[in-house]
Amino acid sequence: MQDSIEITRPAPGVGLLTISRPEKHNAIDPATDQKMAQAFAELDADAGVRCIVVTGAGNRAFCAGADIPELLPHIKHNMAAQRDDPQFCGITHRIATSKPVLAAINGVALGGGLEIALACDMRIASSSASFGLPEIKVGVLAGGGGCTRLPRTIPVALAAEMILTGEPIGATRALEAGLISQITEPDALIPRALEIAAAVASRAPKSVRACTALLRRARYDELQDALADERRAFADVLLSHDADEGIRAFAEKRAPRYEDH
Questions:
Q1: Nearest to 40, CA basis, from 5, 105, 90
Q2: pLDDT at residue 229 above 90?
Q3: Within 13 Å and on the Cβ side, how many CA atoms surround 172?
Q4: pLDDT one-digit tens code per residue, 94-144
Q5: What is the pLDDT of residue 160?
Q6: Are 111 and 135 in contact (CB under 8 A)?
Q7: Which domain of life is it from (predicted)?
């Protein structure tokens, strides 16, 4: 069976981490969650890697977020047992590596996929990419940093629209809103990402580390209280009847039937 995470070193100083579950739109199950954290640790320990690129396998998805029938019950079980760790894919709540990370978004970046991208230092996307936090459609919320980081990254009104409707936006609107820094044609995305990463890797290492640490203050150090509040809200809704119905309806491919409480 193919590993769900692939690591390559396609250029001097560059590590490429690929989420490789294309048959699942690169959705994250518990095993892939752990493997991604291990991959970041491996690349962080590699002195030959100075910049990391994260992407998804295939041409349809960067990451469609949680593998809902697999990951959400796993998280719910941990929360009920009071052993929840909010860190998602090794990157959302604690810094995974001192090295800069670039998200090369090659398709849909939904839910946890967008949360991974928001935790990266740089983001570029192909013209076919789309971005969304659809968790509200299954009765939960983006508890891996999405509800906290998105309104601090793009205009608040747009973030609220995305979070409260669960509807995605395309690459052009994402660029206009400042969610990504540039758009490429699909075939040009990885070459462009590797070009940027190679440029970063060629700069003075001490300066790169210092700049990266300073840039991350607003995404980690200054957000700890907000991220903790978000996780408590996530636990509250995930352990609710709404979440039970939303997840069940998703698995059964039907519209959820929510009740007033």
A1: 90
A2: yes
A3: 0
A4: 999 999 999 999 999 999 999 999 999 999 999 999 999 999 999 999 999
A5: 98
A6: yes
A7: Bacteria
3-state helix, strand, coil in the chain (%, to 5): 50, 15, 35
* DSSP-derived secondary structure for 66-87: B-HHHHHHHHHHHHHTT-----
Q: Could you give the residue ranges of the DSSP H alpha helices within the chain?
A: 30-45, 68-80, 112-119, 146-153, 156-165, 171-177, 189-202, 205-216, 224-238, 241-252
Q: Which residues make beta-bridge pairs with 51?
A: 14
Q: One of 23, 42, 70, 135 is an active-site residue; which one?
A: 135
Q: Is the pTM of this model over 0.85?
A: yes
Q: In sequence order, what are the beta bridge partners of 124?
A: 104
Cβ atoms of 219 and 119 closer than 8 Å? yes
Q: What does the pLDDT average to over 136-157? A: 96
Q: How confident is the model at residue 1 (pLDDT cuts 50, 70, 90)?
A: very low
Q: Is 143 helix (H, G, I), strand (E, B) or coil?
A: coil
Is 115 known to be catalytic?
yes
Residue 179, both tokens: 């969610």
Query: Which residues lie across from 123 on neighbouring strands?
Result: 103
Known active-site residue 42: no
Distance CA(55)–CA(107), nearest Å, equals: 9
CATH topology of domain 5-207: 2-enoyl-CoA Hydratase; Chain A, domain 1 (3.90.226)
Q: Pick the catalytic residue: 6, 23, 70, 115?
A: 115
